[in-house]
Amino acid sequence: MALSVPVVLYSEMIQMWFGFSMPEFPGSMWIAPVLGTFVFLWGGWPFLGGGVREARERQPGMMLLISMAITVAFVASAATTFGFFDLDFWWELVLLVTIMLLGHWLEMRAVGQASGALEALAALLPDEAERVGWDGGAEKVSVGDLALGDVVLVRSGGRVPADGEIVEGAAELNESMITGESKPVPKGAGDRVVAGTVATDSAIRVKVTAVGEETALAGIRRLVEEAQSSRSRAQMLADRAAALLFYFAASAAVITFVVWMVLGNPGQAIENTMTVLVISCPHALGLAIPLVIALSTALSARHGILIKDRLALERMRSVDAVLFDKTGTLTRGEPAVTGVASLRDGEDSLLALAASVEADSEHPLARAIVAAAKEKDLEIPASSGFRSITGRGVEAEVEGSKIAVGGPALLREAGIGSVEPPEELRGTVDAWKARGAAVLHVVRDGEVTGVLALEDGVRPESREAVKELHEAGIRVVMITGDASQVADAVAEDLGIDEVFAEVLPEDKDRVVAELQRRGEQVAMVGDGVNDAPALARADVGIAIGAGTDVAIESAGVVLASNDTRAVLGVVRLSKAGYRKMLQNLVWAAGYNVVTVPVAAGVLAPVGILLAPAVGAVLMSASTIVVALNAQLLRRLDLRPGRT
User: Fold this and answer.
1) pLDDT digit string (tens) for 461-504?
2) I need a labelling partner for 148 at 20 to 30 A (CA). Which of 64, 223, 571, 611 fits?
3) What is the DSSP secondary-structure string of 351-384?
4) Is the sign of the CA dihedral 246, 249, 255, 257 positive or negative?
5) Helices and strands in the chain: count of H runs, count of E runs
6) 325 catalytic, yes or no?
7) Average pLDDT of the chain?
8) Given 163, 325, 482, 531, the catalytic residue
9) What is the dihedral of CA 254, 255, 259, 265, to 10 degrees?
């Protein structure tokens, strides 16, 4: 721009238009040619080099059009300087290059901001870690020096430097940068933690299980990078449109030049040809899709939605049915207390009594009972004399009474005389069994005092996910290897439309194929392990709960959290991204349909002609409109439960 200002000021045409004159001095006549040549060769080099590359690759586009336009202007102006023509375009040339560079800079800045998600992910890792030595002391080392098996100290407020397992301490960890969930997650000894997450309230010691490129964060970064560089159907359409636009612009430029030469106006012929070449540059068209892709991929990564396949994301907008695996997806994949019935002491007292007996047991059902009591903040009495009765249950002394917890075999072992519960509880127990629940009896001093029902616990967010999918007009289908009564109970609880029960893992893809034969576009949501064939066959495969395992090859979309509501975020992102792509394509193509004839001089009879610099301004303006429209995607809230 600094070099362009003197060229413009010393242009005879500009001086005549605005009625001023610049001081003359020896050599002033060379200001425009010398500075104009420098601007052409230096400022125009990105376009000249890009044009040559497009020509060599036989993929003509924006760079070739711009390089043709500035080359025509330079050759005509240089020939005029040496007296061959009277076609001085130095000021148009320098303004054209300056404006094009400004537009190009704005475009790259917008794309750079969108791609900044990669740098943001890299910045989540601390530079140093505190490695715990054999003597228990901590020394600061570079994160790159950590090895498998090292133990690191993560202080309150510090970031976890590598994937690992807590070996000492407990803390609430902020995993929002990985899962998109802002609520801290409590973790203690034995729990896995992910590099980049933050210990919010206390210190923990973590044994390193993955470093460098093997961490979840590195895997997420790779997925974001691959998604931003992947091509989509819309991108292919834009590329074909850009190629067609080149031939359209080149043809229009030739026709413009010939017509104006026939009319006996060579100066106007060259000027209008330049304007046509510049104004028809597929700059906006070239930016329309990549910027939306970059922004949507960065936005999704920040919310724990990792896009592996752009085509999968595009297809998500037209999905008719979402097929959920039950265990570990709609449910927790572990038992939970779903019912308590007591004969005399009250439900809370019965649950606390059972938890007291089960406190020393490592059985999954025992842990579920203890967890249920703690969740209700019940006071769990102390127990003694714990004994596990293999295949039957457990027993212990609690408050002077002998308490036993177990199934029907326990009743037989206790000599109660019948493996059936008391008459008052029989209806409740039968209903639980019909649902497929495991029923445990609580026996006090040889007498049954109550019963507990344990089932694979339904995730509380699953109910909301099903509701929101229904509101979006999408059918919800569940598939499971469990018995029909278990599957039907979960389906009734959640309001699921269709159930496929007692399906073997290897047959899940057959169910997907059956839904597709009905003409439905199917998204399959599973854990990405035994659901791999079904995830691969579905129109959209979504792996859920992969916060520490992002390399799931069978899915096109990976959800970092276990929250099924994130599926709605994928649907919203797909629809919003597609809408922005269409809007940008329509604008970019429509702009050329209107402006190219004007640039060619169709409106010259009524006194309307566009200078090349004006064409560059209009072309850059169209690019900025496309960029700003794409930026509106940033307002999309993909957090679970948001609309």
Assistant:
1) 888 999 999 999 999 999 987 778 888 888 888 999 999 988 87
2) 223
3) HHHHHHHHTT--SHHHHHHHHHHHHTT--PPPEE
4) negative
5) 22, 22
6) yes
7) 81
8) 325
9) -30
